[in-house]
Amino acid sequence: MRRAGRRAAPGGAGGADPRRRWIAGVDIGGTNLRVGLVPFEGGRPAAVRRERSRTERGPAHVAARVAAMLRDAAGEVEPGSVAGMGVGVPGTVDRKPGVVRETPNLGWRNAPLRDLIGEAAGLPVALDNDANCAAYGEWWQGAGRGAERMIAVTLGTGVGGGIVIGGEIYRGASDAAGEVGHTSVDFAGRLCACGSRGCVEAYASGPGIAASAVEGLADAGDSVLGAVADAGDGRVTGRAVCEAAAAGDAHAVRVLAETARILAAAVANLVNLLNPDLIVIAGGVTAAGDHLFGPLGREVRRRAFRSAVDACRIVPAELPGTAGMVGAAGVFKRTAYGHV
Fold first, then answer.
1. What is the spatial distance between Cα 214 and Cα 216, in angstroms, rounded to a whole number?
2. pTM of this prediction?
3. Segment 100-119 mean pLDDT
4. 27: number of CA atoms within 13 Å, CB side?
5. How far is C-alpha 117 from the geometric centre of its chain's CA atoms?
6. What SS3 class is residue 89?
7. How far apart, in whole angstroms, are the C-alpha atoms of residue 133 and residue 163?
8. Mean per-residue pLDDT of the chain
9. Average pLDDT over residues 156-167
10. Is the alpha carbon torsion for 183, 188, 189, 191 positive or negative?
11. What are phi and psi of 338, to 5 degrees?
12. Reduced DSSP (H G I as helix, E B as strand, rest coil) percent helix, strand, coil of the chain, to 5
């Protein structure tokens, strides 16, 4: 067994062992674990496995489940053809020792996740923030192909961000750059899981959208979300709000318009600060389509400098559900072989 986190030994043409045809991409989310085998040269993940995250059971449990999912997936390809693993995890990551320093939505601190997964799977591992991985996946194989300066904003259980400049992930001085979700849009606003108030994540994540919908139900008239709240366990979700908006529910449309306005404040700040060519919006909330992107684009244009807005496109992701796996595989390849 290779020591976890050890750099893969380059070999063969272009620094890659030609027998290694696949890289495992792992996306650890607050809700689901996803494992897939990404072709070495890039492409659609194969043998994708998905299950509930169960992160409350701790990082060792998650590492064991990831290893088991990988063994199951690897049964579909040639033995010995998986070069290694890239793993994306929400929160701040110290890449050199492979430690997850803090994950507001998982409750982990200082977890040696790279070594836990590497030892369980018997493969070298590269660890990075999940939004960085999603951004890299979109830049490498998705909506960001060819972009020189790209920012990805991921909307899911939390709100993440990743910055790719000149083909490299910009990580900052302590690997903590790109935390778009924890920039503030209201210094006295909702309490966020990170402990601060008014973070974008508290409003534009799936749970944040659901909270906004529930807060307004009393004045929403005959919204279908009222029936959702009254049924079963009474939980309104971000997905339910998006589906209701798509069906024409007026309350859900208003909630998404307000969500887009709040998100636009953060996106306009990014446009003014970094002057990117492209901003990619990813995650399940993008299923809302024009109910999100219409007001988002209008509000960004109203808030940001004209020259910066004119130079920047805001587009939906092209790799829904797979960008994290693809990008994690790309991070491993870049780390181990120096290129993607």
1. 5
2. 0.87
3. 93
4. 32
5. 19
6. strand
7. 10
8. 89
9. 92
10. positive
11. 85, 5
12. 40, 20, 35
